[in-house]
Amino acid sequence: MPPASIEVESAETFRDEDVAYANAIWQAGGGAELYVWPGAFHGFDTFAPGAALSRTPARPDRARFGAS
């Protein structure tokens, strides 16, 4: 399986579950990249596309991670 790319916002309702999912992949010997956007909420880049976090680093990092 290819490595998983997991991103979650720090103010996301399911943040802990996403972190646990990445941890489970690592414990099973799989590859995963986890990124927690500090200070962000679900859909932050859609609701506030002009915000500093939405412009930099979120968009360049998403392109690098292959996330949509």
Main beta-sheet annotation: 2 strands, parallel
Give the terminus-to-terminus CA distance.
Answer: 19 Å
Helical residues, percent: 40-55%
Q: How many extended strands? A: 2
Unreliable segments of 5+ consecutive residues: none
Alpha-carbon Rg, integer: 13 Å
Q: What is the N-to-C order of secondary-structure elements (H for helix, E for strand)?
A: EHEHH
Overall mean pLDDT: 84
- Approximately how much beta-strand content do the residues carry? 15-25%
Rough outline: elongated
The number of distinct helices, counting runs of at least 4 residues, comes to: 3
SSE-based structural type = alpha+beta
Q: How many discrete structural domains? A: 1
Strand order of the largest sheet: 1-2
Describe it for me?
46% of the residues lie in helices and 18% in strands. The protein is α+β, with helices and mostly antiparallel strands.
Topology:
Elements: E1 4-9, H1 15-27, E2 32-37, H2 44-47, H3 52-65
Parallel strand pairs: 1-2
Brief write-up:
This protein is of the alpha+beta class. The chain has helices at residues 15-27, 44-47, 52-65; strands spanning 4-9, 32-37.
